[in-house]
């Protein structure tokens, strides 16, 4: 019983750490910066956090398939699942982050009002949380299904690496520094979970390359169409995002019918 309770406590600590990281940046800014800066940053986090939450729905749907692949120690199937999840997450996320970043000002003004125009550059940075979270999610899920305690320990490590510098960064670099710190924390977590999942032969270059190509197409379309404000600008951004993602996802579609 004691061993079971200890295991539950360790896994619970990982879940608590993951929850803290989601909103700690806004809380720390609230303690260190002006209300106007905190409001702009808090609003800028809304869209990336919503889009990142969709990744969780995907991995929840994949949970039974991932469990079977891990339980059977089918490394080939784990590799295929990881590559397909990466293709979806990066193929949609990278062009989306680029399109949102390029049109962040009209997007922020439409969503939050002209008084919160200062949220635009923060939104342009924080939009990159979406592809980073999508890329790390599949590897984190595979680690959890193989060893929940190890996943919890890695999550706590990432949380500490992200949260410990936040007060200093908030005081000296403001909201932009905090946004950069959060992205670095996600990148650090991605590196840890890729290493911990230890799936040999996962192709990272191909999904990354095509997702960058999709982002270039999205930005190229936005440049060609010219800047627009209001709903027309947002519609233009969504159209460019759709085209860039479609190109990337079509290029990254599975080459075989293997499950």
Structural class: mainly alpha
Whole-number mean pLDDT: 90
Number of strands: 0
| N/C terminus separation | 39 Å
Count helical runs.
10
Outline type: flat
Strand content: under 5%
Helix content: over 70%
Unreliable runs, pLDDT <50, ≥5 residues? none
Keywords:
single chain; 259 residues; mainly alpha; 0% strand; flat
Q: What is this entry, summarized?
A:
The chain is built from ten helices and no strands. It has 259 residues and is an all-alpha fold. The model has no long low-confidence stretch (mean pLDDT 90).
Give your account of this protein's structure.
The chain has 259 residues and is an all-alpha fold. It has helices at residues 2-32, 35-71, 75-102, 104-112, 119-126, 129-146, 148-163, 166-197, 205-225, 230-251. The protein is flat, with a radius of gyration of 19 Å.
Write the SSE topology.
Layout: H1 2-32, H2 35-71, H3 75-102, H4 104-112, H5 119-126, H6 129-146, H7 148-163, H8 166-197, H9 205-225, H10 230-251
């Amino acid at each position: 019983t004691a061993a079971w309770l200890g295991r539950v406590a360790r896994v619970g600590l990982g879940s608590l750490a993951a929850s803290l990281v989601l909103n700690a940046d806004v809380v720390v800014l609230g303690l260190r910066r002006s209300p106007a800066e905190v409001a702009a940053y808090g609003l800028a986090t809304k869209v990336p956090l919503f889009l990142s939450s969709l990744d969780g729905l995907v991995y929840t749907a994949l949970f039974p398939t991932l469990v079977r692949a891990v339980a059977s120690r089918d490394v080939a199937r784990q590799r295929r699942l990881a590559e397909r999840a990466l293709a979806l997450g990066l193929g949609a996320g990278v062009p989306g982050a680029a399109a949102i970043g390029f049109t962040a000002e009209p997007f922020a003004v439409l969503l939050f009002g002209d008084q919160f125009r200062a949220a635009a550059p923060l939104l342009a940075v924080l939009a990159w949380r979406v592809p980073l979270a999508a890329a790390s999610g599949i590897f984190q899920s595979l680690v959890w299904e193989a060893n929940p305690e190890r996943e919890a320990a890695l999550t706590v490590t990432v949380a500490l690496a992200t949260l410990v510098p936040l007060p200093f960064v908030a005081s000296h670099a403001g909201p932009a520094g905090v946004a950069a710190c959060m992205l670095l924390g996600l990148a650090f977590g991605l590196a840890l979970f890729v290493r911990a999942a230890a799936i040999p032969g996962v192709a990272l270059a191909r999904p990354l390359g095509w997702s960058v190509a999709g982002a270039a197409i999205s930005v190229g379309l936005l440049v060609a169409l010219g800047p627009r404000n209001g709903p027309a600008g947002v519609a233009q951004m969504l159209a460019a995002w759709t085209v860039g993602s479609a190109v990337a996802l079509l290029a990254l579609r599975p080459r075989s019918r293997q499950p």
